[in-house]
Amino acid sequence: MGYGYRGKVLRIDLSSGRIEVETPDPIIYRRYLGGSAFGLHYLLKELKPGIDPLSPQNMLIFTSSVLGGTPLPGATRLSVLGKSPLTGGLGETEAGGWFAPELKRAGFDAIIIRGRSDRPVYLWIKDGKAEIRDASHLWGKLTGEVSDILKEELGDNRVRIAQIGPGGEKLVRYAGIVNELHHFNGRTGMGAVMGSKNLRAIAVRGTQEVPMYDPERAREIVRWFVQEYYKPQPGDMHDLGTSRIVKPLSDAGILPTRNFREGSFEGAEQISGERMRDTILIRRGTCYACPIACKRIVKVDEGPFKVDPKYGGPEYETVASMGSLCGVNDLRAVAKANEICNKYAVDTISCGVSIAFAMECYENGILTKEDTGGLDLRFGNAEALVKMVEMICRREGLGDILAEGVRRAAEKIGKGAERFAMHVKGQEVPMHEPRGKKSLALAYSTSPTGADHMEAPHDPALENLGPEAGDPLEPLGLIEPMSSLEFTPRKVKAYYYCQILWNLYNCIDMCDFVGVPLGPFPINKLVEYTQAVTGWDTSLWELMKVGERAATMARIFNFREGFTKEDDTLPERLFQGLEGGTLKGEKIDKEKFEELLELFYQMYGWDPKTGFPTRGKLAELDLLWAVE
Amino acid sequence: MGYGYRGKVLRIDLSSGRIEVETPDPIIYRRYLGGSAFGLHYLLKELKPGIDPLSPQNMLIFTSSVLGGTPLPGATRLSVLGKSPLTGGLGETEAGGWFAPELKRAGFDAIIIRGRSDRPVYLWIKDGKAEIRDASHLWGKLTGEVSDILKEELGDNRVRIAQIGPGGEKLVRYAGIVNELHHFNGRTGMGAVMGSKNLRAIAVRGTQEVPMYDPERAREIVRWFVQEYYKPQPGDMHDLGTSRIVKPLSDAGILPTRNFREGSFEGAEQISGERMRDTILIRRGTCYACPIACKRIVKVDEGPFKVDPKYGGPEYETVASMGSLCGVNDLRAVAKANEICNKYAVDTISCGVSIAFAMECYENGILTKEDTGGLDLRFGNAEALVKMVEMICRREGLGDILAEGVRRAAEKIGKGAERFAMHVKGQEVPMHEPRGKKSLALAYSTSPTGADHMEAPHDPALENLGPEAGDPLEPLGLIEPMSSLEFTPRKVKAYYYCQILWNLYNCIDMCDFVGVPLGPFPINKLVEYTQAVTGWDTSLWELMKVGERAATMARIFNFREGFTKEDDTLPERLFQGLEGGTLKGEKIDKEKFEELLELFYQMYGWDPKTGFPTRGKLAELDLLWAVE
Fold first, then answer.
1. Given an 8 Å threshold on Cβ–Cβ distance, is B477 in contact with A541?
2. Fewest C-beta in 10 Å: which of A154, A354, A396, B50?
C-alpha cells in the first residue's frame, strides 16, 4: 500500500466561478494527513504574504483528513484555515458535527476557496460535483432560517450545511462558521473571511462509502472503543457536558472570573454543568459516530431569556466567558448569549472576553453610559450582557467597536484600556487560567493563532503532565506525575510532547475529547486505526512528526506575515497575582517564563535568538521548500 | 505495569575486592533500556572526567538490556562501555554470542567494574552470586586455552566466558573482549581497559528464567519471525555470511582497497563470501536464539596459513581490512590473520587498518625494512600481513608502534605519515566507503567512538535511504528512495532517523543484522515485542527518544573529555577523489559536508556554533542532570 492513500480536493474560485477537482500526489497525504498541516501546505504554497485577510486574495480552506468519514468516534472534525482578520497571522479552527464526514462521503478531503463573488452565493456539493448558487435570498438571515431554507430548496433533509451568519456578513472580526447550527469553527475569524467572499454557506451531501484499507480491523477497534472502553458514568462528558469542570475549576481557583482578575467565582454552582443538567437541558447532542454525546441542547420557555433548542446549548467555554468572566451567575442569560452568537455565527469566547473587557473599562470609568448606549455595563449585569452580545453581532453602537476584538477596541478607546485587553497576538484569551495551569503560559504565548485552547493541551486533568503509568500518555514516555503549579523544564518537555500530539490531532481532525490527552483513547490504538484505514505501516513516530511539521508550518506562516518572537508573550495581567480565589496571589513569574520559553524553542528546533525554525529542523521535516 | 521492569546490577571493585548488588529504580530501565544509554548513565554519573583510561579510575561496564535473554532473534548483544584508551573519549562496543543472555539468566542486567586488582583475576558469576578468583595461571595464555581451562576448572561446559587475550594484557590500544572465542566486543580498546585492571575473564552461568510480562505474546512474535518471516535463501546472510557483500561492493566501487586509495579490488572474488563458502568454510555459527546463523567457522589444514576452527572465521570487516585494504587476495592468509586476532583478542579492523597504513608508509619510503624487521611490507604481501598481525598482538618491533593505533603511530613515525592514517578521533576507519555511501561521512565524523560502523547505518542496501513503500523503515516515514551518491538535506534527515534507530538498537542490544535497517525485522514488531516483554505501553516515539538520549549522552561524555566540534571531521583522503575503481574520482565535497553537518547538528538539537546539545534538548531528553 505504501503511501497510496488517494483523495480529491475541490478548488473554487469565487471571482471567476471556476470549479476544479484536483488529485494530490499520494505523498501529500502521507506527509500532511489532513486538517492543519494539509491546509497549511496549500497556504504556504499559494497564499501571497502580506495580503489583507478580508480581500479576495485570501484563501479559505475547509479540510477533513485521511481518517475523516470513517467510523472512529472523534475523527470527525472539520478544519478551516486562512489568514486571520483578527490576528493577521494564521487563521485555523476546528469544529465537530457532521460536515467533514459528509464531505468525505461526497468524495472530497478538502475545499480550497479563493476570490470573491460579486453577489451572495452558496456552494452546493454532491457526490463529486460542485455548483455555485445564488444566495441573495439568504443574506441577512439568521443561521436557523438559512438552514431551513436550504434543506427545503435542495429537497434533502440530510444535507449538511456549514455557514456564516449575519455576524460574518458584517465582518465581525471573530465571526465563525457553524455547521448543523451548533458545531462551531469559532475562532480566528474565519466567518469574516467567508463573509468577505460573499459566500454564505456550503451545503454538502455524499452517499459514497469512505474506503478503508482494512475495514475489518478498523471496525474492530471502533467496536472495542464503543463496547469495551467508553463506559458512561455520572459526572462525565456525557452526563454534564464540557461544563462539568465549572465547579472543580472554581474550587481550584482557576475559573476565569471578572476578566481574569480572579480565579474562583461565587456563582459557579449556578452556572455549572450540574445546574444545566437539572434545569434547562432537554437533550444531549453529538457528532458523527460518537457515543459520548458531550453536546448540550437547552431550552428556556419563559422569563427574559427565552432560548430556542434549535441552536443547541452553551459549552464550557461559553458558560465561563459569558458567565464567570462577566460575573454573570444566571445560566439562562448565558444560554441566551450563546443562542444569539449561534444565530449570528459569532465566536462566544472572543465575544464574552470583549464584553468582560468593556465591563472592566466601564467600572474604571474608561467607558461610560454614553458609550454603552445607556447600558449599566457592570460585571454581573445579565441583561446588559445579553444586550451587548446582540449589539456586537449586529455591529451596533459600542458593539461595532467590540466586534473588532479587544486589541483594536482598546486602541480605539484609549485611556489605558489596553491593560484590560486579554489577548495574545490579537486573539482573546480562552477560559483556562495559566496562573493555575502553568503550561498554558507556553500554550497561549506560542500558539500560532494567538491565545487558543485548541492548539495546545489545557485541561486540568492533563496538568498532572505526565500521568501515572497506564495512562493514555504513557506511550510518549510521560510517566512521572507533576503538579499543575510546577513550572520547570520537565513541565516544558511534557507540554512540548502533548503540544505535538494536539497538533497531530488537528491534522487527523481528531476530537480532543475523544483522543488523548483529554479523553480516554489510547494513542497506540489511534496509530493502529490509522494503519487500518490508510494501509500505511506508520508509527507514532511518523505521526508525531506530522504534528511537529504542522506546528513548524504555522510558525513559518506567521513569520512570513511579520510576526517575530516578540509576539510570543502574554497579557501583562497574567504576570501579576490573581486578585481573588483559591489561588489568590499566584502568578506567572516573568523571568521563569522567559527561561522556559527558550527551552521550548530549542525543543522545537527554533533558534532562540530569532524564534524561527533552524534550517536543520526544516530539513528534517521536509519543509525547506516553504522557506525557499 | 507502568515502568515496573525490575532488574539487578552487579558492582565489582577490583581494588578492594568489594562486590555489591544494586537494584536500580525502575524508571532507570524505562529511560535507558540497557546497553549504550544504560551504561552511559553510569559513566556520566560516576566517572571523573579527565582520568587516564588505563588507570584504575576507569570504569568498565558490561550490559545487556530489558530484552536481553528473551527469545527474540538478535536481542542478544552485549555492550561494553568505558573511557577509550584509543580515542580518549567514549569507549563502546557490542558483541553477539551468548554472554549477555547468560548474564540475564544469572539475574543481572549489567556488571560495573572499577579499580584494579593487584594480581590477575577472573570473575565468576552464577545465579545472583559473584566471586573474584585468581587468574595467575591464565595470564599470558591464548584465549582458546583460557576457555578450556576455565570450563574445566568450573566444572561446567555451559559456562559462558568473556575474556581478553594477551593483546589486552599487553594493552594493545585496540584490544577487544571476546566471548565464546569468536564473538567480539572489538572496538575502542575495551580489552586494554580490562587488561589494565588485571581482569582476564568473566565467566557466567545462569539457570533462572528471564521473566516476561506477556510471554505468550512475546513468543508469538518470535514464532512469526522464525516461521513466517525469515526465509533462508541463497546468497543471504546465512548462506554467505557478512562477506556476501565483498563482490557487490567491489563492483560498485566501494570496497576499501589499499588503504582507501581505491574502491574496487581486483582480488575481490578470491576473498568473497562465495569463495569462503566453497573452500574453507566447515560450519556456520550463530548467536543465542538466532536462526540466521551468519557466523563463519573455517578451517585450513595445510599450507603456510593453518587455521584452527575453534576461533571461528573472518567477518566481512576482517576480510576487507586484512584483504582488500592490504591488497591481499589470499583468503587463507586473511583467515589466519583473523585467527591470530581472536587468539590474542585484538580488533581486526584497527589491526588491518594499522597494517595498511604501515604498508602505504613502506611503499612511500617512510618506513623501511629496518623499521619492519626485514619484512617486505608492500600491499599484497600475505605473509608480511600475517607476520605483522602477530607482531602487533605481541607488541614486537614495529608492531609495538602499530599497537598504539594509526594516530599515535603516525605521530611517532613522523615524515608526513599522518596523511596515510585513516582514523577519526583516533579510531581506525572501518570497511565502508563514505565517498560511495555518502551518509557515512556524517556517521564517521560524528560517531562518539570515532570512525565506527556500529554507531550508524552503513549498509549499501540502506543507502537507498529511505526505501520503497513496504520496507521496514516505512514506520519512520522514510518512504522516498534516494541514491547512494546523493548528499543532500533529505539524505541527512534519513540518516538522522536511522542513526537514532541504531542508537536505540545499541540500547536494547539488538543485532543490526536482524533488526532493521539492515535486516528484515519490522520496527513496529520490535515495539510490540518490547511491550510484551516489559509490560510498558510504549511506542516507537518513546523508544526512538531513548536512541536520541543515548546519542546525546555520548556527546556530553566526549565534550566532558575535551572533544569539540572540530573533532567531527574526516581523514583528508576522503575529501579527495577515489584513485581507482568503479567510482574513480568520487569524493566528499568539503563545503557540502560542512553545510550538511550543520543541518545534522540542528536536527539533533546541537548548537551549530559549539556542537553541544542545547539546554532545551537536554531538558527534553531528561538529561539536564548530566551537565549540572
1. yes
2. B50
Q: Which three cell numbers stand for residue B324?
A: 582488500
pLDDT, residue A148, reads 98
Residue-level length of chain B: 628
Q: Which residues contact A404 (CB under 8 A, 6 or more apart)?
A: A173, A412
HEC per residue, A213-257: CCHHHHHHHHHHHHHHHCCCCCCCHHHHHHHHHHHHHHHHCCCCE
Is the bond preceding residue A517 a cis peptide, omega within 30 degrees?
Answer: yes
Q: How far apart are CA B295 and CA B283, in angstroms?
A: 9
Does A541 sit within 8 Å of B476, measured CB to CB? yes
Which residues of A fall within a CB distance of 8 Å from B523? 539
The amino acid at A254: I
- Amino acid in the structure at residue B212: M
- Within chain B, all domains assigned CATH 1.10.599.10 are found at 439-626
- Tens digits of per-residue pLDDT, A597-613? 999 999 999 999 999 99
Q: In a 3-state reduction of DSSP, which class is residue B149? A: helix
Q: Which of B492, B538, B598 sits opposite A475 (nearest CB)?
A: B538
* Shortest Cα–Cα distance, B72 to chain A (Å): 21
Q: Are A508 and A94 in contact (CB under 8 A)?
A: no
- Mapped onto helix, strand or coil, the DSSP state of residue A586 is coil
List Cα–Cα distances, A137 to A150, A224, B370, in angstroms.
Answer: 10, 47, 104
Consecutive H or E run containing A185: strand A183-185
Peptide bond into B608 cis (omega under 30): no
> pLDDT tens digits for A52-105?
999 999 999 999 999 999 999 999 999 999 999 999 999 999 999 999 999 999
Q: Which residue of B has its CA nearest to A531?
A: B475
Q: Is the pLDDT of residue A461 over 70?
A: no
Beta-bridge partners for B185:
B177
b/e per residue A131-143 (b: at least 16 CB within 10 A): ebbebeebeebbb
SS3 A139: coil
Q: Which residues of B touch A552 (CB under 8 A)?
A: none
Architecture of the domain defined by B9-205: 4-Layer Sandwich (3.60)
CA distance B313 to B324: 17
In A, minimum Cα distance to B617 occurs at A603
Q: What CATH architecture is B439-626?
A: Orthogonal Bundle (1.10)
Nearest to B551 by CA among B465, B429, B455: B455
Domain B232-428 listed as CATH 1.20.58.1370? no
The CA distances from residue B21 to B32, B120, B128, B211, in Å, are 19, 23, 9, 19
Contacts of A483 (CB under 8 A, 6+ apart): A463, A464
The CA distance from B355 to B368, in Å, is 14
Cα distances (angstroms) measured from residue A128 to each of A104, A106, A206? 10, 6, 8
Question: Is the distance from CB of B626 to CB of B618 less than 8 angstroms?
Answer: yes
Residue B109 has pLDDT above 80, yes or no: yes
Question: What is the DSSP pairing of strand B121-126 with strand B129-134?
Answer: antiparallel
Q: Report the number of secondary-structure helices (H) and strands (E) in chain A.
A: 23, 16
Q: Mind listing the pLDDT tens digit for each residue in B418-433?
A: 999 999 999 999 999 9
Is-cis flag, bond preceding B517, omega within 30?
Answer: yes
Residue B93 forms beta bridges with which residues? B80
CA separation for the pair A370, B131 (Å, rounded):
92
∠ CA B465-B468-B471, nearest 5°, is: 90
- CATH 1.10.569.10 range(s) for chain B read 232-428
Per residue in B310-339, is it b (16+ CB within 10 Å) or e — as a string?
Answer: bbbbbbbbbbbbbbbbbbbbbbbbbbbbbb
Q: Which helix (H) or strand (E) segment is B200 a member of?
A: strand B199-205
Inter-chain Cβ pairs, chain A and chain B, closer than 8 A: 144
